Amino acid sequence: MTSKLDAEERKALLGALEDSGWRAAEEGDAMVKRLIFKDFSAAWGLMSRAALCAETMNHHPDWRNVYNKLEITLSTHDCGGVSVLDIELARALDALAEGVAEVDRDIGRPLMRLADQVED
Length: 120
Hints:
CATH topology: Gyrase A, domain 2
Low-confidence stretches: none
CATH class: Alpha Beta
Largest sheet: 6 strands, antiparallel
Enzyme class: lyase
Organism: Thioclava marina
Family: Belongs to the pterin-4-alpha-carbinolamine dehydratase family.
InterPro entries: PCD_sf, Pterin_deHydtase
Radius of gyration: 14 Å
Helix content: 25-40%
Mean pLDDT: 91
Order of helices and strands: HEEHEEHEE
Pfam families: Pterin_4a
Number of strands: 6
Distance between the termini: 15 Å
Strand content: 15-25%
Structural class: alpha+beta
C-alpha cells in the first residue's frame, strides 16, 4: 500500500507543482488543478490521453469536465491523502497539457499549505 507523503517529502516535492498551477483542494488532503482549452474537443482529447496514462500507472484522477474546462483532483484513496503516486501523475498530466491548455491559477489555496497538513 502506498503511504501519504510525510512533511519532508511534501516540502521537497510540492513546490514545483505549485509553480505549474496545482493548488490545495478546498477539502481534504488533495491537490487540484483547473485547465482551460480552446473547446470541448481539445479538453476531451487531453482526458483521453490522461486516461491511458492513469491506467498504465493504475492511479486514477477525480475530474470534472464542463465544455472547455477540466478540473483535476488528485489524492490517493488507499492512504487518505497525497502520495508519491499523485506527484507522479501530476507531472505526467502537466506534460500532456503543455502547449494544449491554459492553467486557471485563480483556484484553491497554495499547494505548499499541504506541507503543513500531515497527520499520522
